[in-house]
């Protein structure tokens, strides 16, 4: 739409041009908008398509999906309560101490008319935590509408993704055009506990150190040797293929130092060969929401079979006792380390397809 035509329409509706531009209030359907000055304009209807009509904003409180359905911005705490009750109960039971009220991604109620029939987390190029309130049964119809809205919002040069898809929704997303990634994973967890650990005299055990990196972030003091250890431990593995890691640079631990704290850093482990000084194994911990989790654990092939992975996890469980109630980890189906976790008493949760996505080429 040209600016001249836009000005004529705004004048006809008695809406100041600067207000309409600032508050993004024009839509095909009804929108309620939130603005810093408190001004709200709603129930404006246009039959003309304009690029900005499809843009997403965290300040827009309502989007129309069709004449019948809409999504409305939700307050995270109440939305999280509903998600806890109506999302997959096996999954929710595994994460029983959480309330699913994180504000990391916008939470919306799904409405049919004025009846609340479900909820979803959505932002451009991503959707997850979709649930419906019984007895509503038209989930596929709604997901197609949500998909169409996502396509309008999203960067079409990038894929649209949903994460950690549980068994009861795999077919639903597939019917809506999402392709499953080839990797299936699941969370495992066990309570923290105390262990007496008998380390081999041929190794030296330390905790990693984290310092400021000079640009506002944090880094491991010895990130280069950690990268070397991870490259030797994981290169060519299923995990490396999943993460598309093949070079030393790919294994540089430049993200996880920002997702941990002093307690978890001290409970993380670096294992050195006492004779050569080489870092031969490491287990790094991070925060997963508010719980302790294993970010990465690896042992060089020449040092496997000595129980180092088991002892690193036992050290973590022991040092976290009294600080965190449990320790979690995320394991891919077919990972050889899964037997180590099971033998340590880690219990598996629901198996998931890690991601499903609408490919970029399907969005063009």
Plain-language structure description:
This protein has eleven helices and 17 strands. With 364 residues, it is of the alpha+beta class. The longest helix is centred in the middle third of the chain and has 15 residues, at 139-153.
Keywords:
364 residues, ten-stranded mixed beta sheet, 11 helices, 26% strand, disordered N terminus
**Count of discrete alpha- or pi-helical segments spanning 4 or more residues:** 11
Low-confidence stretches: 1-53
Radius of gyration: 25 Å
Name the shape in a single word.
elongated
Q: Give helix % range.
A: 25-40%
Order of helices and strands: HHEEHHEEEHEHEEEEEHHHEEEHEHEE
Q: Would you tell me the overall average pLDDT? A: 85
Structural class: alpha+beta
| N→C terminal distance | 21 Å
What is the strand and helix layout of this fold?
Layout: H1 3-12, H2 17-23, E1 62-64, E2 69-73, H3 76-86, H4 89-94, E3 107-112, E4 115-123, E5 126-132, H5 139-153, E6 160-165, H6 170-175, E7 179-180, E8 184-191, E9 203-206, E10 210-212, E11 218-220, H7 223-234, H8 238-243, H9 262-267, E12 269-273, E13 279-288, E14 291-299, H10 308-320, E15 326-332, H11 338-343, E16 347-348, E17 352-358
Parallel strand pairs: 14-15
Antiparallel strand pairs: 1-2, 2-3, 3-4, 4-5, 6-17, 7-17, 8-15, 8-16, 8-17, 9-12, 10-11, 12-13, 13-14
């Amino acid at each position: 739409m040209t600016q001249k035509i836009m000005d004529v329409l705004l004048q006809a509706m008695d809406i100041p041009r600067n207000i309409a531009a600032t508050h993004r209030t024009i839509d095909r359907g009804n929108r309620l908008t939130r603005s810093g000055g408190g001004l709200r304009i709603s129930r404006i209807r246009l039959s003309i398509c304009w690029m900005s009509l499809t843009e997403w904003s965290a300040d827009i409180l309502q989007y129309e999906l069709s004449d019948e359905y809409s999504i409305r911005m939700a307050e995270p705490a109440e939305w999280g309560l509903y998600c806890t009750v109506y999302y997959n109960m096996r999954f929710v039971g595994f994460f029983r101490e959480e309330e699913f009220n994180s504000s990391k991604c916008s939470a919306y109620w799904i409405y049919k008319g004025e009846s609340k029939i479900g909820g979803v987390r959505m932002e451009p190029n991503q959707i997850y935590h979709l649930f419906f309130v019984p007895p509503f049964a038209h989930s596929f119809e709604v997901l197609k509408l949500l998909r169409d809205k996502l396509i309008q919002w999203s960067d079409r040069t990038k894929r649209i993704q949903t994460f950690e898809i549980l068994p009861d929704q795999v077919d639903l997303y597939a019917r809506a055009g999402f392709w499953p990634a080839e990797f299936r994973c699941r969370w495992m967890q066990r309570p923290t506990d105390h262990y007496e650990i008998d380390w081999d005299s041929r190794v030296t055990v330390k905790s990693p150190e984290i310092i400021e990196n000079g640009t506002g972030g944090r880094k491991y003091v010895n990130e280069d040797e950690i990268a070397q250890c991870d490259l030797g431990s994981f290169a060519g593995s299923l995990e490396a293929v999943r993460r598309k890691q093949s070079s030393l640079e790919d294994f540089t631990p430049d993200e996880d130092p920002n997702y941990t704290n002093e307690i978890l850093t001290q409970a993380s482990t670096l294992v050195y060969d006492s004779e050569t000084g080489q870092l031969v194994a490491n287990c790094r911990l991070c925060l997963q929401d508010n719980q302790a989790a294993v970010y990465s654990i690896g042992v060089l092939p020449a040092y496997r079979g000595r129980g180092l992975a088991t002892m690193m996890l036992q050290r973590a469980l022991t040092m976290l006792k009294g600080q965190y109630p449990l320790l979690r980890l995320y394991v891919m189906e077919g990972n050889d380390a899964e037997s180590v976790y099971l033998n340590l008493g880690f219990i598996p949760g629901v198996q998931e397809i890690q991601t499903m996505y609408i490919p970029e080429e399907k969005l063009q």
